[in-house]
Amino acid sequence: MTQVSFTENLRKHIECPPVSVTGSTVREVLEAVFAENPLLRSYILDDQSRVRRHVNVFINSRAVSDRRGLTDPVGPSDEVFVFQALSGG
């Protein structure tokens, strides 16, 4: 199963502990997470189901390349990390 983790900053806004789910693409993995935690969807995806501009998704140490369709392949031993970008000075 794929391990999905979220940054502490995102966890301040919504409860989203690490979770293990199945899926062969980033979309399938995230949909499995959202099935367990539906409120998380609006923090990660926009109204067109694309990754929000202030969110980054990585598979292991590689940023996903398809932020619209989320078709990047994910294996059962991969880790998916969801980061909410921070800004300021």
SSE layout and pairing:
Elements: E1 2-6, H1 8-13, E2 19-21, H2 26-36, H3 41-44, E3 55-59, E4 62-63, E5 79-84
Parallel strand pairs: 1-5
Antiparallel strand pairs: 1-2, 3-4, 3-5
Q: How does this model look, in words?
A:
- The chain is α+β, with helices and mostly antiparallel strands and 89 residues long.
- It has a single domain, classed as Roll (Ubiquitin-like (UB roll)).
- The chain is 24% helix and 24% strand.
- It is built from 3 helices and 5 strands, in the order E-H-E-H-H-E-E-E.
- The protein has helices spanning 8-13, 26-36, 41-44, and strands at 2-6, 19-21, 55-59, 62-63, 79-84.
- The protein has a 5-stranded mixed beta sheet with strand order 2-1-5-3-4.
- A hairpin with a 2-residue loop joins strand 3 and strand 4.
- The longest helix is centred in the middle third of the chain and has 11 residues, at 26-36.
- The radius of gyration is 12 Å and the shape is globular.
DSSP strand count: 5
The shape, in one word, is: globular
Mean pLDDT: 93
The neighbouring-strand order within the major sheet is: 2-1-5-3-4
In CATH, the homologous superfamily goes by the name Beta-grasp domain
CATH fold-level topology = Ubiquitin-like (UB roll)
Could you tell me the strand content as a percent range?
A: 15-25%
CATH top level assignment: Alpha Beta
The helix/strand series, from N terminus to C terminus, equals EHEHHEEE
What is the domain tally? 1
Extract low-pLDDT stretches.
none
